[in-house]
Amino acid sequence: MINWIGIAAINMAIAVALGAFGAHGLEGHVSIQQLEWWHTATLYLFVHALGLLLVGLLIRLKYITQTTAWLLQIGIVIFAGSLYAMTLGAPRWFGAITPIGGVLMIAGWLWLAVSAFRLKDSVN
């Protein structure tokens, strides 16, 4: 089984490092728009990494399957990764794949909701 708690912790460490790089290393080197992309990517990475930590705990306790974690992690990589790439000079068409990551993150949270409702129904 994949250690989703460890993966979540790595995501959080990456979020802190990339947030610091964006705040101290990019200013003056990229446009305001690109800096906004970087901040958005970092915010979503950090928030979803925290969520993934919770999901990892739920998986470990055998309340849910790994599906939520996979949807969140792939969504994080696509969403934040495409924004980071555009900030660093990738073509703007990369922005066309950003929503795919967002949809995967939404799907992950909805899958968690469905799993939680199923769990509640099976306990009663």
Round the mean pLDDT to the nearest integer and report it: 94
Structural class: mainly alpha
Note the beta-strand portion. under 5%
Considering DSSP H and I runs of 4 or more, what fraction of the residues is helical? over 70%
- Number of distinct beta strands: 0
Number of self-contained structural domains:
1
Q: State Rg.
A: 16 Å
The major sheet is characterized as: none
Stretches with pLDDT under 50, minimum 5 residues = none
Succession of helices and strands: HHHH
Overall body shape: elongated
Distance between the termini: 28 Å
Number of alpha- plus pi-helical segments? 4
What characteristics describe this protein?
124 residues; transmembrane; membrane; DUF423; Putative regulator
